[in-house]
Fold this protein.
Amino acid sequence: MASTEVKVPDIGDFKEVEVIEVLVKPGDVVAKEQSLVTLESDKATMEIPSPGAGTVRELKLKVGDKVSKGSLILLLESSEKSPSPEKPAAPKAATSAPAPAPAPATGADLECDVLVLGSGPGGYSAAFRAADLGLKTVLVERYPVLGGVCLNVGCIPSKALLHTAAVMDAARSLADHGVAFGELKVDLAKLRAFKDKVVGKLTGGLGSMAKMRKVTVLTGVGSFEGSHVLSVQKEGKKTLVKFTSAIIAAGSQAAKLPFLPDDPRIFDSTGALELKSVPKRMLVIGGGIIGLEMGTVYSTLGTRLDVVEMMDGLMLGADRDLVAVWQKFNAKRFDNIMLKTKTSKVEASSQGIKVWFEGEKKEALTYDAILVSVGRAPNGKKIGAEKAGVDVDAKGFISVDSQRRTNVPHIFAIGDIAGNPMLAHKAVHEGHVAAEAAAGQKSHFDARVIPSVAYTDPEIAWVGMTEDEAKNSGAAIGVAKFPWAASGRAIANARDEGFTKLIFDAATHRVVGGGIVGTGAGDLISELALAVEMGADATDIGKTIHPHPTLSESVGMAAELFEGVCTDLPPQRKK
């Protein structure tokens, strides 16, 4: 049987591309459009498909070789009818493979069905969903690895450090149980290595999944050149990508205070995660979740904390009774909690960082470090959106409809850039909706509630309508609060400071929200989110059997408490 030479097809403006993986071996039977080799340039990773079915007779390259258009890949004994000599068959790329199409007349280097700008949880979820739906997908990320802020310098590394801090605090408290340790010793280099290992495992996994789905990953800074073209800049080189649809998932960045001096002892959450040292005294500017989470880590490692907040409370958004439990439990971490106060002036010197305040705190104080955590700003103004005709507001947000479409119908926006709340789990669900809508499905983002969690110690979590919101709006609600001081598991854990609160519609008894403060609150809140989404009422929750002894029992008992049938507390009203 005659053998056919399989060569590298037209791969656009790519020459001397390295072979990083050979996917077949002599004797393998391959199908038409099955991937044969993986190539990688400084712009993209691509797989070359087989132009026909047959058996691999001989490989003509190996890993590490450099190839260009026309380079010989292998000899294939064809199982298909040979094409006539007058009309030679052209290699055909697989519809789901990331091998770029020939450069079109516009001069683009790549063409795709869906381009996703940004590889955070929303971005990679959108790209993977689009690929699963059979769309040729390109994912653009400015950093060397996938995962965006969340996986690299946000959610994941901070939780790795918070876990370590929680274990350290628990170890110290075991002396009250009759188990004493010597003084804990911290090796910052090993702690950083542990955090980096956690991040690397997840980001590496994303790279593998992108490859399995044949998603083309481009590394560089993306910016729109038109309504169907995006440029990717890397080290002075530009790659143009032509797309049918685009999903903007470019996220946000830490907001800055312009009056702060440029000093390595003044950093945002990203800098805090580098954990270069443990300052003796640190000021946290901003009383939100991110600053207080990182403050917890530094406090456990030995730092004394002050926090300054312009508003009249910490972690605004959560009910005040939830925050009060956290604040009482953590009072020992802080020297000063300055509310209704703002930072007016900062001077850095060799003696420390001197800070002046305006508000209830008048005197100037000196610190060894400052953690700036005053919120995040969307990146809508940094992606050339105006060249694509996409409207961006003054703050950098992009308005979208229920399918996450912008004012340009074939361009979608998800995650932080598409509006508050800036939460990874919101972005993931939006990414799925946008990818499905781009594929022509009637998919819409119609979540009733989006849960929020502060991964402090104790954790605070809430979902749906809060009690404070209900009071301010005049909504008729009923509230049931089950104290963890009556929870067998919480008492056994020596962590009974928390409580579980359910909020019900007063007329229908359907749950409309709730909040939990205590260890593991972030995991427990999912049951309340599901209850709201499913329209469950107090009886549904109370009669659902929860395992004993667990903290999850507190959810069922709070529902029973609302209906007056809880036997783990003193008698309530009879039902």
